[in-house]
Amino acid sequence: MLKVITARFHPPKPSSRRFDGLTILVVGASTGIGLEAAKKLAAQGTSTLIITARDEAKAATTKATIEEHIASSSAFSGPLPVIVPLVVEMTSPDSIYNLVNRLKQTTNHLDHAIISAGLLAGSYNQAETGYESSLQVNAISPTLLSTHLLPLLLASPLVQKASVAERPHLTLVSSGAAWLASRSTIEPILNSAAPLRDLSKQQAFIPGVMGGQRHYCLTKLMLEYSMRHLAFLPDIENTEKKPKVLVASVCPGAVNSDLSRHSANSGVVGMMAKIVNNTVARTAEQGANIYISSLGLGEEGRGQMWTDDHISKDHKVFLSTPEGKTLGDRVVKELQSFVKEMDIKRGM
């Protein structure tokens, strides 16, 4: 709780890292931290900046907003980036595959990618896949998208760089809330053969003031299991067992954003979110600093959470205990089955 209260006074430091000549993707760039990160990338030399929003109108508006930001910045110098607005709805596998196809039509590689997807639900709702919506947005869809972004990242010339810090990065936006999942909340899925399906049942979404927050913690824990698996895939290692693509997660801390957009009108939950946002939360611009600095992480960041300018030191009980590791293995297996099923449906 102290970290939340003091977050605004100790924000992540701005990164001076340059991205000249690079092609970078920011998924979820239309508002909040994603938008601020896209602005920073555009101003720091990115050659081609690919941004996504949930519909074409928002994508076009986001492009215009970033261009206006660059035009009004007295500190900006150098060639203007090419900004490519694309669309993705993270609750929809079809939309994710459409994005991947558009990316392949737009570029033959990505140098970095940031997946800034997050949803704190105020009530139970199912995505079209049958999974609970916040679980779909926070863990399942980022895994599906990451799986199909890795080939584009592996095609980057940066994979030949001697330093891991200079190679392509895939940053998944997570939350320290993942480490707040208690044994009592995780108990119902601890021995489940299909933990994600069980977590998506309506009875798993506890009603009341903190139901959405409790579920959010669990969904981000599921993302952390997935991220760690992706980070150590043999396919992204070189012959020296060093990562050709550095996969990590970031936690921007308590930030005034639209994360809780679906709970904003949910009585006490909405009121609590507004109080935090208006008093102790960081600005979206401050939160975006951690996105940018993550793109310079070295091998020490592989499969880790980057937060407040350091690797997270939080106690990660459900990553370190035997039963937690077993749960993680089952989560990854279920995610792999989901990705395979989606690929087969689309003839991939």
From TrEMBL:
<keyword id="KW-0560">Oxidoreductase</keyword>
<protein>
    <submittedName>
        <fullName>Short chain dehydrogenase yanD</fullName>
    </submittedName>
</protein>
<dbReference type="InterPro" id="IPR036291">
    <property type="entry name" value="NAD(P)-bd_dom_sf"/>
</dbReference>
<dbReference type="Pfam" id="PF00106">
    <property type="entry name" value="adh_short"/>
</dbReference>
<dbReference type="InterPro" id="IPR002347">
    <property type="entry name" value="SDR_fam"/>
</dbReference>
<dbReference type="GO" id="GO:0016491">
    <property type="term" value="F:oxidoreductase activity"/>
</dbReference>
